[in-house]
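User: I'm curious what two different proteins look like when written out as structure tokens. Can you demonstrate?

Assistant: Sure. I'll show them one after the other, since each token string lines up with its own sequence. Here's the first protein:
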Amino acid sequence: MARIGVVVFPGSNCEYDAARAVEELGASAEFIFHSSTSLGDVDGVILPGGFAHGDYLRPGALARFSPVMDAVAAFAAEGGPVLGICNGFQVLTEAGLLPGALQKNRGLTFLCQPTTLVVSSTHSVLTRAAQVGARLVVPINHFSGAYTCDDTTYASLVDHGQIVLRYQDNPNGSRDDIAGVANEAGNVVGLMPHPERAMSTLLGSADGRVLLEGFVSAREIVH
């Protein structure tokens, strides 16, 4: 059974959703507080959504200095699967574990709605079980979710297949419809939509399952 660590920052509010989702897929979930200096014996790490440290300065800017982030960075450097969802994605970019940045949505509007994603690459721990071109309905819930980067970074993302998910109909002004990116190795991934909220058709969509199924078993592939 895979053990997935879910990092909890002051202001996180999606940690229970993330834990419940991976448990539904047969993994065990363990909450890891932001002040921890060790991840313990986990097979994967999720940085969940919310408002880490109240999003003061800018989303993720303070969370990157939490003691746990040194352990997350070391885990990622060893090839460990790391997933940042929404605010977690912002934290990963601020920490330098993923390229680019997230800025305020086009129109300065908070968005909370279903959105259709297109799988652009399966070279990541999140999309490895999906198919390129697949369309997945997954909700978004953010104000600062528009992905941006400079031209050099963008060219590198394209060249190395690091854009893993795009919006079918761009809701927030993200560059090139980008909804999720990976590092070059594919073991660190961030996305603004919430796959943990798309686990059942009773709640609107079960399309998040294929993403999280790939993630919870990714450690077996990495090692």
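Here's a second, unrelated protein for contrast:
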Amino acid sequence: MFAFLRHWLARNGDDGTRYRRRADELRAMAARMPREEGNRVYYTHFAGVPAAELMAAGREWYAEYREGPDAFVTATVRALARHRAAGDRIVLVSGGFAACLGPLGEDFGVDLTLCSDPLIGEDGAFTGEIGTAMIGKAKAVAVDRTIAAYGLPAADCWAYGDHSSDLDMLSSVGHPVAVGDDPVLCAHVRRHGGSVLPSTGGRRDEPGRTVP
């Protein structure tokens, strides 16, 4: 989300050092708040922006971002490829929004994206508010509803998370996976027979393959 914000600020006139500093300041401010509140604050920065313009910027950003040396978490891209090969449904659950998650989902063949939903006014521009902050318990609720809609046993489903706010979501499935070293998630998955994946990044050169 903040990689996209840096791109957006640069695209709209902030010079190199200034836009990086501004985005980092916003990220630090959000980190001091409850995660859901920080998620809502993030979207206030797009108030008044035409939705179509922001969606176009998202595609522009992702085309550049995906070529970076550490754009993707290698272990999770490999896990996703295994799920896809097994015929599993892939659902992306994130506090991000469609402008940056849409291109990502298309690139990875995601079946469904559950994300925060910035509100759009009658003029076609974002209001700066969101309906649902797809953080914490909201993720678990959305996942539970999706599992039920697909008619699947929760015990047969997998969930991947990298922050303690993902605990409710991981607790709702039979196969929880922690990505990285968050102590809350790592303790949970180990108690419930889940696994822990490293969060090291890599470059994705072609579908289904990353280069560390």
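A detail about the second structure: The two ends are 22 Å apart (CA to CA).
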